[in-house]
Design brief:
It holds the Pfam family Homeobox_KN. This is KN homeodomain domain-containing protein. It is a single chain. 68% of the residues lie in helices and 4% in strands. By secondary structure, it is mainly α. It has a two-stranded antiparallel ribbon. It is globular.
Length: 288
C-alpha cells in the first residue's frame, strides 16, 4: 500500500472514530472500529518496517490522534457533568418528596429512570486521592461501601465484591498497571515513589491536579516494602529519574495524564492504540 492509500485509511478511520465518539455506539460498531484499527495498525507498521512511512503520513497520524483525544476529553467532561447533574437532581427530588411518600407504581418508575450503571463516585474519588498505591484496605473498602450506600436512592445497592472488582478492573483498564510495569518495573513501592515525584514536580493541589499520590505534603514517609518498612523522601521527577531525558519524562507524564483521565471519566480500553505508536514514532524522529 502506498502513502496516499495509507493517508486515506487514516482519514477514514478518524471519521469513523469521531462518529462513534459522538454517539452511544454498541458492540457491533465497536467491533467494526476494532477491525478498522487493526487494519490501520497493520498498514502503518508495514510501511514503517519497510522504511516507507513518510513524515507527512506521520504528521497526519499525530494530528488525527490529537483531534480524537481533544474531542474525547470534551465529550467525557460533558458526560461527567450530565451524570453529576442527573445524580444531584435525583437526590434533590427524593429529598423534597421523600422516598416513602411515593406510591408503589411511582417508585418503580423512579427506579427505572435511574442510571443502571455502577455508582463509582466514591471509589473513583478514593482512587484519585491514592494514585500512588490504589489498593484500599478492607476498612477502606467498607468505608467506601457505606459512603456509597448511605445516599437517598437505595436501588442497585453497591456490594463489597463489586468494590473489590471495580478496583481490580480500573487499575487494569485505566492503564495504571501498565504504567506500573513500564516505569516502576512492577515494584509497587517504586511506583508510589514515582507518583509522589510526579506530584511534587507538577505542584498545585488535589483540586487543581485532580489526582494525588496519597502521601500528602510531608517531606518523608515510611512505607512497607514487603515485610520491611523503609523511609522514602519527597523529590522531583528529575531527581528521582536523573538518567531519563526530558522528552522521555514528558512522554511519561502524558501517559500518566491519560491514566488519570480514564479513571476520572470511567473510560474503558481505548479504541485505536495505534495512534500512540504513530505519535511515539514521530517523537523518535524528532529527537533522533
Amino acid at each position: 500500500m502506498d502513502q496516499d492509500s495509507a493517508r486515506h485509511l487514516l482519514i477514514e478511520f478518524e471519521q469513523a472514530v469521531l462518529d462513534a465518539l459522538a454517539s452511544n455506539f454498541g458492540e457491533e460498531e465497536c467491533e467494526r472500529l476494532k477491525i478498522m484499527s487493526d487494519n490501520v495498525n497493520t498498514t502503518i507498521s508495514h510501511l514503517f518496517e519497510q522504511g516507507k512511512l513518510s513524515q507527512p503520513t506521520i504528521h497526519l497520524g499525530v494530528s488525527i490522534g490529537e483531534r480524537i483525544e481533544h474531542l474525547r476529553v470534551v465529550l467525557n467532561e460533558h458526560r461527567a457533568m450530565m451524570d453529576e447533574l442527573q445524580r444531584s437532581t435525583t437526590e434533590e427530588i427524593y429529598s423534597i418528596l421523600g422516598k416513602e411518600s411515593l406510591k408503589p407504581g411511582e417508585k418503580k418508575m423512579a427506579a427505572e429512570r435511574r442510571d443502571g450503571g455502577l455508582n463509582a463516585t466514591q471509589m473513583r474519588d478514593w482512587f484519585l486521592k491514592n494514585m500512588g498505591y490504589p489498593f484500599p484496605s478492607r476498612s477502606d473498602k467498607v468505608k467506601i461501601l457505606k459512603s456509597t450506600n448511605k445516599g437517598p436512592v437505595k436501588n442497585d445497592t453497591l456490594r463489597y465484591n463489586q468494590v473489590v472488582l471495580w478496583f481490580i478492573n480500573t487499575r487494569r483498564r485505566s492503564g495504571w498497571t501498565k504504567f506500573l510495569r513500564r516505569y516502576a518495573q512492577g515494584d509497587k513501592t517504586k511506583m508510589l515513589e514515582l507518583v509522589w515525584a510526579l506530584e511534587t514536580s507538577v505542584g498545585g493541589t488535589h483540586a487543581s491536579r485532580c489526582w494525588s499520590s496519597g502521601l500528602g505534603t510531608v517531606s518523608t514517609s515510611k512505607v512497607r516494602d514487603g515485610k520491611k518498612e523503609r523511609k522514602i523522601t519527597r523529590m522531583t521527577i528529575k531527581e528521582f529519574m536523573p538518567e531519563v531525558k526530558d522528552y522521555e519524562l514528558e512522554k511519561m507524564y502524558m501517559e500518566w495524564k491519560k491514566v488519570v483521565e480514564r479513571i476520572r471519566f470511567g473510560v474503558k480500553e481505548r479504541v485505536g492504540d495505534w495512534i500512540e505508536e504513530v505519535i511515539a514514532s514521530a517523537d523518535m524522529t524528532r529527537h533522533a
